[in-house]
Amino acid sequence: MYKVFIREEPVFICNSDQIKAESADLKIIHFEINFDWSSIIDNPPRGGVYVIGDNIDLIWSSFKGCFQEIAAAGGLVENSNKEILCIFRNGKWDLPKGKVEDEEKIEDAAIREVEEECGLERLKIVKHFQNTYHTYEMNGVQILKTTYWYSMRTDYYKRLVPQLEEGITKAEWVKNDDLEKVKANTYKSILELLT
After folding, report:
1. Rounded to two decimals, what is the model's pTM?
2. Which residues make Cβ contacts (< 8 Å) with residue 21, sequence separation at least 6?
3. What is the pLDDT of residues 75-125, one digit of tens each?
4. Alpha helices in the chain (DSSP H)
5. What region, left, alpha or beta, does residue 180 occupy, with left being phi > 0 and alpha being psi -120 to 50 degrees?
6. What phi-psi label fits residue 61: left (phi over 0), alpha (psi between -120 and 50 degrees) or beta?
7. d(CA 92, CA 19)
8. Which helix (H) or strand (E) element contains residue 113?
9. Nearest to 59 by CA among 41, 39, 32
10. How many CA atoms does the CB half-sphere of 94 hold within 13 Å?
11. pLDDT tens-digit map of 26-61
């Protein structure tokens, strides 16, 4: 199953057996050859939609054909006090991430982006834990961004330095008890990672 956020609405690409009971009331569309994605991309159904068929790889390939793809990598970073590293970018709470450069390994990009966006050092990847997918438009081009997320640890305790030129105005360690402020003003894909 693939789950893509289009304008903050989830689009599930799956077969009929993968429809989750808690969201079975969402609109269901059956995929066919020459499927027209435009209505979903331009105006995703409120609450989300299932696009189902027998061959998930074929559906996913058809969907991806509507976009220019960008790979990004980032981290859900925890320090030894069990605090989570969060950034405030362009008016919303987020987790540090950024574009994978040409010829760069995804894991290296994840560490580099977190370090650059937060002025952080001594990061260690614990494991890859999830990919997220979302779309947006940039200069008239539809973009599909795949973000590779890694669980990371650090013992770095110096002051964090937000990367202002990337629209980041805060980089903070947030205690689990204080994550509600982040969850109240973040993207749905980030909310899922934090949950």
Report:
1. 0.92
2. none
3. 999 999 999 999 999 999 999 999 999 999 999 999 999 999 999 999 999
4. 38-42, 56-64, 106-118, 179-183, 188-194
5. alpha
6. alpha
7. 30
8. helix 106-118
9. 32
10. 19
11. 889 999 989 999 999 999 999 999 999 999 999 999
